[in-house]
Amino acid sequence: METHKTLFKSLEKAEKHFEAGEIKLAQKIVSEVSKIIKAEGKVSNKLRHRFNFMSAQSRYFNEISSFATNPKRNEIMEAIERLISKPLENPKKQANEIHSLQTRWQLLDQTSKPASREQWTSFKELTDKAWEPCAHYYEELKLIKISNAKQREKIIESLNQYTSEYSRKWPGLIDMSKYLNKTFQSWQKYAPVLDEDFAKLKSEFQIARKPINDAIKDQENKNYKIKESLIEKVKLINDVDNQICIQKYKKIKREYQETGPCGKKNEPLLWKKLNEAADKFFAEEKTLVKDELALITDLSNELKKDNCILNEIKDQIKDINKVRKSAEFKNLQKEIKAFEKKQLSMMLDKKLEAYQNILNNLKKDEAQNDVIHKDILKVLKSPLYNGDEDALLESVIKIELIAQIEPPKSNQALKQKLALEMLQNKFSGSINSSNGIKDLLIQFINNLQSKKTNANENKLWKRVNEALVKVVDQLP
User: Fold this and answer.
1) DSSP 213
2) Which terminus of the chain has fewer Cβ atoms in its 10 Å neighbourhood, N or C?
3) CA-CA distance, 249 to 466, in Å (whole number)?
4) What are phi and psi of 8, to 5 degrees?
5) Per residue of the chain (476 residues), what is the pLDDT tens digit?
6) Residues 6 or more apart whose Cβ sits within 8 Å of residue 61
7) Who's near 354: CB < 8 A, 6+ residues apart?
8) How far apart are CA 26 and CA 62, in angstroms?
9) DSSP 114
10) Residues 300/332, Cβ–Cβ less than 8 Å
């Protein structure tokens, strides 16, 4: 009865391996149970049914494996048959092609269900026949296969040494996995070997890997239990303050992430459980995020209206905290900048129009304007009308110098004198550009001859207007 209990446990273990996708490991256990049952003779019906079920599972996976690999084996044999019926002209190329096909055949046997005895016999007969045109290369390739076998023996030896050195205290799971992967890559590199060496080396390789694989499984199982316990801790969080719940969850989540792997199949399942356990904490957060995104949409729509008040929109933006890194928030900021730029452009256009119409206001006795500087408005109400054409021209050239516009050639001498004067004033800090333009406009207005401007004055004012376009952002 004790033996039967042990066999039941072995079959349960095999079932878990099948579920985890560890087919070869499960099939090995089923095979061992089969040998024991045969040796026992009579066993309980319950055990027999259980064994028959697991044996059927094993056969099913064999059939699946055969279904996937047999067409590939058939392709290899068909390729060899083509070499037999039509050998390559170069015997060395023929030998290399056969060598390549043998490598593919043996690698299939390494990574899936082994070929049947009949398949191996057929394959050997075909390769022997294909070798006939290049017999003198056979010994050379045989030496390569013997050399490959020796290299594989060294890999097996290194695996055994690794187990001997670290079995008391195994390295980390990731380090062991990398080591196994590295040795497997090396193993694949040294193929093919002689047919008579292949099965023996394959068996020894799997036996040498087993202790390391078992150690990896043990660590994965420990990590699995740790992660399960952390998920349970998350489920028990129940503080009144939701923010405290979130902080506790984040702390557990960091511990979860610092725990090692627990198997490729288990990782996504446990991660999903962890997130599901924490969903209740983020329900409120998700609602706040949703509300803030809706607010962003409303503010974006508000910006499109002609009567929108930008300051009110900016005040409402201060209440947005959860989605400041979102694409929607960034787009809203871009829209606000574009709106501000548009508003500024409109304001400057309005300002430029007002300044360019100064003389029109003078003629119409309209000196009221909320855009033009009060000092200029004051002068417009009662200009001096000095009629000084030199002072008038100086004011125009200085405005052109500020706007970096080249005066006419006839004004070049005066331009150089005035440029030097302005440069000295700039270094002394006695004037800034906006005040300079204001004073120059006042100078221009005061030095007109009368309210009714003459042709020369109109010509000079046209130059002023062209310069104002360049310095619109500096207008007082």
Assistant:
1) H
2) N
3) 66
4) -60, -45
5) 446 677 777 777 877 766 666 666 776 777 887 777 777 777 777 777 777 777 766 665 554 454 456 677 778 888 888 878 888 777 777 778 888 888 877 776 655 566 667 777 877 888 878 877 776 666 777 888 899 999 999 999 999 999 999 989 999 888 888 898 999 999 988 888 888 888 898 899 999 999 999 998 999 899 889 989 988 998 898 888 888 888 888 898 898 888 888 888 888 888 888 888 888 877 777 777 788 788 878 878 887 877 777 787 778 888 888 788 888 888 878 888 887 788 888 887 888 788 888 877 766 655 556 778 888 888 888 888 888 888 888 888 888 888 888 888 888 888 788 777 777 776 665 555 556 888 888 888 888 888 888 888 889 889 888 888 888 888 78
6) 18, 23, 26, 27
7) 369, 371, 372
8) 12
9) P
10) yes
First-residue to last-residue Cα distance in the chain: 105
Q: Say if CB 219 and CB 173 are below 8 A apart.
A: yes
Cα separation, 297 vs 118, whole angstroms: 72
Do residues 277 and 233 make contact, with C-beta atoms less than 8 angstroms apart? no
**What is the distance between the alpha carbons of residues 147 and 442, in angstroms, rounded to a whole number?**
101
Nearest to 178 by CA among 133, 148, 216, 224: 216
Length of the chain: 476
Angle at CA 208, nearest 5°, toward 202 and 209? 90
What global pTM score does this model have? 0.42
Query: What does the alpha-carbon distance between residue 467 and residue 398 come to, in Å, rounded to a whole number?
Result: 10
Q: Is 212 exposed, middle or buried (0-12, 13-18, 19+ CB in 10 A)?
A: buried
Inter-CA distances, 112 with 7, 146, 253, 259, 407, Å: 26, 24, 39, 33, 89
Phi, psi of 188 (to 5 degrees): -65, -30
CA dihedral 253, 257, 262, 264 (to 10 degrees): 110
CA 78 to CA 434: how far, in whole Å?
A: 91
Q: Report the distance separating Cα 36 and Cα 34, nearest Å.
A: 6
Give residue 111's Cα distance to chain centre: 33
3-state SS class at 190: coil
Cβ partners under 8 Å of residue 451, min gap 6 = 362, 363, 383, 385
Copy the structure tokens of residue 442.
């006042």
Place of tokens 């050239």: 397
The secondary element (H helix, E strand) that includes residue 147 is: helix 135-166
If phi > 0 it is left, if psi is from -120 to 50 it is alpha, else beta; for residue 21 that is: left
